[in-house]
């Protein structure tokens, strides 16, 4: 049985007949009950469904970073993971249905106006990845020594992500971390972005390239 929240003019919550009332982030919604599909999906629907699965399968395991990188975008209307999905959808998927694939060089794991890491790079040596960036801080650009740095590596062959377990700052200029033994062959795709200490300002993520391992 449904209830009216905050009086006769308030939002509707619960089930009443064929409709359901709910709210999210103080926004009230009314929707119809789910109806079992009897018609087969069209080709356009199948294409969108396949794109959705491919992109969300990539983003969901790194939701802990997406919550930071897209935590400020559309925060009053959608979740960070949905914001990241919408931001990437039109740019990162290539190929022809059903053989879609991700263009990792176009994937964004953060967006914002904070100045990034300047001259950045990544290298590999004996099972370890080393990321480097500029340590220069500029008060005029509102960049500071304690800005936080986030790094990410993705091993497409094993479908696994790796990141540093150590928190790094702009002042550090570098971070090195080891790859698990089963990820030390093949290649990894790499990214980096920064935030201020309060995580209220973000830089655009930078794709650092595909690093060949052994």
UniProtKB/TrEMBL annotation:
Pfam families: DUF6266 (PF19781)
Superkingdom assignment: Bacteria
Protein name per its UniProtKB record: DUF6266 family protein
Organism: Sphingobacterium tabacisoli
Lineage: Bacteria, Pseudomonadati, Bacteroidota, Sphingobacteriia, Sphingobacteriales
């Amino acid at each position: 049985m449904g209830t009216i929240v905050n009086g006769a003019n308030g939002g509707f919550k619960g089930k009443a007949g064929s409709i359901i009332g709910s709210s999210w982030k103080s926004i009230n919604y009314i929707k119809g009950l789910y109806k079992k599909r009897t018609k087969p999906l069209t080709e356009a629907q199948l294409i969108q469904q396949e794109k959705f699965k491919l992109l969300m399968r990539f983003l969901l395991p790194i939701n802990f970073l997406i919550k930071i990188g897209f935590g400020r975008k559309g925060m009053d209307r959608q979740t960070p993971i949905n914001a990241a999905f919408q931001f990437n959808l039109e740019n990162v998927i290539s190929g022809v249905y059903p053989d879609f694939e991700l263009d990792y060089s176009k994937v964004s794991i953060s967006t914002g106006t904070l100045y990034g890491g300047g001259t950045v790079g990544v290298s590999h040596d004996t099972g370890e990845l080393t990321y480097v960036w500029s340590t220069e801080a500029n008060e005029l650009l509102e960049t500071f020594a304690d800005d936080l740095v986030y790094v990410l590596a993705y091993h497409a062959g094993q479908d696994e992500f790796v990141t540093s377990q150590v928190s790094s700052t702009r002042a550090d200029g570098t971070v090195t971390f080891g790859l698990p033994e089963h990820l030390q062959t093949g290649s990894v795709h790499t990214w980096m972005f920064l935030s201020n200490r309060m995580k209220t300002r973000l830089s655009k993520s930078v794709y650092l390239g595909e690093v060949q391992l052994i």
